[in-house]
Amino acid sequence: MPAVYDKNAVVITKAPALNYFHNNVSLPYDYGMPSYDERADVKAIKATVRKSLDDLDKETGWKAQFKGKKILIKPNLVFVTPKGAYRYDYDIPQTTDPRVFDAALEVLSELVSDIVIGEGSGMVTWTYCHIAGYDRIAKHYGAKLVYFEEMATDRYFCPKAECGQEVYVPTIISEVVKGERLYVSVPKMKTNIYTGVTLGFKNAMGTFSCNMRYRNHTWQIDKKLADLLYLFKPDLTVVDGIIGGCGNTPGPNFPVIVDKIVTGTNSVEVDRVVTEMMGFDPTKNKLLIEAGKRGFGDPNVKVVGEKEITPFVPAEQSLLTPRFEKNWPGVRYFVGHTNDRAPKMTKLDNDHDFAVAMEATCGGGCVASLGTTYEVLFGSKTYPLTKLRHLNIIIGNGAEFNGEKYWIDTNGKAYTLEDLKKLKGLTYVCGECSAPAKEAASKGFWIRGCGEVNNLAFRLLVAMMPTLPGQFDLQNFHLIFFGMVRKMVVKAFMAAKGTPTEPLFDAYDDGLFTIPELAAKNLDCDWVEAPVPPLTKEQRIEAVKGVRFIAKFLF
Amino acid sequence: MIQFLEYVGCGILWVFSSVLTIVKKNPIGIIILSLMHGTECFLIGVKTGLKYGKSLPYCIVMCMTFGFTWWLPLKKQMAAETFTDADFVRTDHDFTMPETGV
Amino acid sequence: MKKFLFTVFTKLEYVDYFLVIVLWIAGAIATICGFPWITLGIVAMHATELVTIGLKAGIKGGCGILYSIAMCMMFGFTWWVPLKMKTNQVSFD
To answer: How far apart are the first and last CA of chain C?
Structure first.
């Protein structure tokens, strides 16, 4: 049975004001030795996390729910990039602080019978767990460490879901879905270019293998994540707000000193409180709106502690910002959409605000991925910022006006396809929906697919000038390479065995993954188990072929 | 990066010594490398590695293969990562926002 | 069959050496990535060969002790098998 609480609470606990910057991304070498426990930062973090969880127990009785149970605890590892990976002189704060994770696990290990630590960073989780020291944490507590992208998957149908009715999750998540294992989410307090913020329940994105991530990794990303709550939700959330991360995560972000640990039993409410603490209005955050609309929040939640606001620099889900234009003066950007969400074009001469509204039509898709990649380029040590790089970027199927299609630039000026074809320099046409503009693309730079982040990012790197992206940290390059080989071998082996780790790539456009006939039959249940029939020999071969070193590149 | 180059250099030394042994039937290179790395391993390598939290088999193989090019950077890194209470006192200089246009 | 195998080993001596060096390099890379067991496996195997066959075969074949130790520890049976063959230490009768 999953944890059932009579009342939900969110507890905000303040940590002593110390310098927590040492080892906030990777564990110190002396972890597990007495000297580690004697460190001032470790003592302070352990005391803060314990106090927060004890206070939460007083309000909700969560400890009684966890006693003797099995748990799956998930940190949030995005790109684990310690100091030196980028041009910045600090550890990139986009990974759950391992000291906080260890402190939470210390409390939980006193209660539960079986611990599994699970994560899927999307890239090389084995490597990231090794760099951050999560493998050592697992060893210390006798826990099993699993990498979601290397696990066989189970299929579920979620009839009530709006856009992600068919879901493939790692087998260990099935134990959570069926109530055999409780789920603890330990995210980092940080902004995110796709969803505004990424906290307790957004952390579940890490349970998806790449091909599942690409599905609806578009303007529908908020709906997709909220839909996942029908399948499983955290029974306990511990937000690492010791050092937060602001800016365009998952690109290299910037630290924010917050000194807080936030715990709670309802992850949507925890996220709502933390969003407010970051200086954002939770009623305007699409992800929280979608979760609220589906009834996953709790209006009666009790908030314990002071909601002190620490302003975070928001993520910019746009290439039309003053900052982008200042950093990348050589990039010309044209956007135009014709769909239900796009503003209608009523004249040829529009303004900047119109261009922004047009771009926002597909905020969580290509634009966010481009923004992330530019952030990576900007921070990469080997990227020569002093040399101006020119590139024309075109997004969208064109905005219709008087039977003609137009793409508008940052000033709102409209361009026809013929105008775009005459642009000087390299032209990069982004996304499957941009097919009407593909003739304007330079050879090899029409980026097909929808929401296929790696495909888009790698070719943008080539277009802007090849460089070694910061997340391929030279200090740990051998581990990253080894991790990628390892991942590919394991995935190919699993596929050959007939237990593939993900469905075949199918995110060619922004179509929904719905099961209409099933939804009609099961309107009242949150999920239905839908085992995949055993694979035929041909299907196994296809599955093995589908395993890629980096990503599936669509041409 | 420097460490990577040092490892490559050490690897070249091993290969060169092996070729010398095969072609000239002179095992001197291999013997010197083995004795030198063995002594380092016994005197300092394993001790440093274990203190840094590495496993014994890892320390032995790394020190026997790469000698001081492995344990010396590790020792330096350990010194840089060893903190006292004073390092955890909050100051205004803990973090400076870089020039990123934010 | 025995003769055939020995002949193949002898003819491919340098290729075998090259392959063993590649194996050592792979072991070193795996160790850097935190997996020292390939290297330790090779060492254990070669040390056993040295004590049981290699040193004896080397001395019988007119090699120096240090040379025999170095070659056997580095190349294992890819060294002592061709040596035995070349110095008529093996009978195919």
So the answer is: 12
CA distance A311 to B47: 46
- Note the pLDDT of residue C69: 93
> In this structure, are residues A263 and A275 in contact, taking their beta carbons and an 8 Å threshold?
no
Contact A323 B102 (CB under 8 A): yes
The residue type of A549 is F
pLDDT band at residue A476 under the 50/70/90 scheme: confident
CA distance C30 to chain B (A): 10
| Chain C residues closer than 8 Å to A130 by CB | 34
Q: Which one, of A294, A299, A318, A274, lies nearest residue A223 by Cα?
A: A294
Per-residue pLDDT tens for A410-436?
999 999 999 999 999 999 999 999 999
* Cα angle: A136, vertex A138, A142; to 5 degrees: 120
The token pair at C23 is 């194996």
Helices (H), A328-416: 352-359, 368-379
Give the mutation candidate from B3, B12, B18, B56 for the C interface (greatest C CB count, under 10 A): B18
For the residues A293-309, what does the mean pLDDT come to? 95
> Measured between CB atoms, which of C21, C28, C36 is closest to B57?
C36
Give the Cα separation of A242 and A109 in Å (integer). 22
- How many domains are there within chain C? 1
Query: What burial class does residue A322 get, using C-beta atoms within 10 Å of its C-beta: 0-12 exposed, 13-18 middle, 19+ buried?
Result: exposed
Q: Is A220 exposed, middle or buried (0-12, 13-18, 19+ CB in 10 A)?
A: buried
Nearest chain B residue to C66, by CA: B27
* C-beta separation of A118 from A75 below 8 A: no
Q: What is the ipTM of this complex?
A: 0.84
Is C29 in Cβ contact with A479 (below 8 Å)?
A: no
Say what the pTM is.
0.90
Domain contains C12: no
- pLDDT tens string A173-207: 999 999 999 999 999 999 999 999 999 988 999 99
Quick check: C25 and B7 CB within 8 A?
A: no
C32 — contact with chain A (CB < 8 Å)? yes
| Chain C residues whose beta carbon lies within 8 Å of the beta carbon of residue A478 | 29, 32-33
3-state secondary structure of A377: helix
The chain C residue lying nearest B11, using CA atoms, is C25
- Cβ of residue C65 closer than 8 Å to a chain B Cβ: no
C24: Cβ–Cβ under 8 A, 6 or more apart, which residues?
Answer: B14, C39, C42, C74
Asked, for residue C61, whether it belongs to a domain, the answer is yes
Please report whether residue C56 resides in a domain: yes
Question: CA of C26 to nearest chain A CA: how many angstroms apart?
Answer: 11
Considering only the beta carbons, identify the residue of B53, B77, B85 that sits closest to A40.
B85
Report the DSSP pairing between strands A404-408 and A399-401. antiparallel
Question: What span, in angstroms and rounded, lies between the C-alpha atoms of A258 and C50?
Answer: 62
Under 8 Å between Cβ of A170 and A118: yes
